[in-house]
Amino acid sequence: MTDEPSTSHVEFGEPETLAERARDAIRSGNLGSWPVIIALGIIVLVFSQTAQNFFTPANFENIITQMAGTCLLAYGIVFVLLIGEIDLSVSFVSGVAGVVVAEAQLPTGAHLPWYVCIFLALLAATLIGAFQGSVVALIGVPSFVVTLAGFEIWQGVILRSITQGVVVIQDNMINNTSNYFFSALGGWIIASLVTVAYVGGILGGALSDRRHGITVGNPIVLGLRALVVPAIAFLTVWICNKDRGVPFALLLVVGALLVWTFVAKRTTFGRHVYAVGGNAEAARRAGINVARIRIVVFMIAGAMSGLGGIVLAARLNSVDLNAGGGTLLIDAIAAAVIGGTSLFGGRGEIRNALIGATIISVVSNGMYILGYTTGTIFMVTGAILLLAVTFDTVVRRLQVRSGR
């Protein structure tokens, strides 16, 4: 968004009607997350009518806990994709974090306090991200090659570290990152805090735009945005309170979403991330330290992989030789892309990861209830990913044609 050079006041509203704005968005390919959100709604509706026990509070919470770890990894992937890079090592980086937190808490080992174990795991994952980002940014090795090597290296580290085959996490505070559920009152307090933070962010952004003489936009759209998320927050709490309560893992997912959305949208660093993804050479000529941005972005991806790895390990109360394996890498990248983050860089939002992770978890959960095999679920997930990438390519062409 750029300042209008001769604007000294703010106009609330656009001369176009909402219908005209919608038509213009379709022609230009500027659809945002709406197609994916609509698709998610259709998927939920279909499974609620066909899959027994799908639309229940207990299964709702199962979906949340299943998607939490993947979603946290996907937040980091979004940042990497925004600068036009890729990180193929996030799954095993998360596995390394799980191994660190598990080994550090062992009563027969270091037996460190839970918060020290978590800190060390996050630190290890962040340092891995810094190392890989430095090789990409300072030496110029393609991120695909660097992180593919990391995929192998960190998998090897996991296999060498767990000589006994499995490490049980005995510290309940660590396990609570995935298995703790808030009381009913705690859930309502969380929904209220999320509402205040989100609405405050919207109003703060509008006031900031107004101070800088930027057109705020249609007040109806602004009002709807301020109402939808709080409504979803309170509805989620209401459903969760019918079972075990709001899971702590959901708080981590929402908290990380708010923090990283603020960083991406309301900070100089965030604007530089989009600039580098849009055109790295132009960003360099504008005075942006492109290498620093790349290194920090890979550090963010490492940190979020570490947090996701802790949650994934806590969910099983253990780590084993398969930590970070399976479909975790594909699911994390697919979540970011399916949610609407462009593979070409410069376009996407942090919330895309949450939307994409939700779709993957809902599809897997619903098909599992219906009795489909794992192979079929993989095929459907892959087809959804292909459709998302195809849609992204078409949208990019429309934007080029429209001059956006």
Distinctive features:
mainly alpha; 73% helix; two-stranded antiparallel sheet
Average per-residue pLDDT, rounded, comes to 87
Number of strands: 2
Strand order of the largest sheet: 1-2
- The fraction of residues assigned to DSSP E strands is under 5%
Biggest pleated-sheet summary: 2 strands, antiparallel
Order of helices and strands: HHHHHHEHHHHHHHEHHH
Secondary-structure-derived class: mainly alpha
Spans of at least 5 consecutive residues whose pLDDT stays below 50 are 1-16
If you had to describe this structure to a student in words, what would you say it looks like?
- With 404 residues, the chain is mostly helical.
- 73% of the residues lie in helices and 1% in strands.
- The protein has 16 helices and 2 strands.
- Strands 1-2 form a two-stranded antiparallel sheet.
- The longest helix is centred in the last third of the chain and has 29 residues, at 374-402.
- The protein is globular.
- The relative contact order is 0.20.
- The model is unreliable at 1-16 (pLDDT under 50).
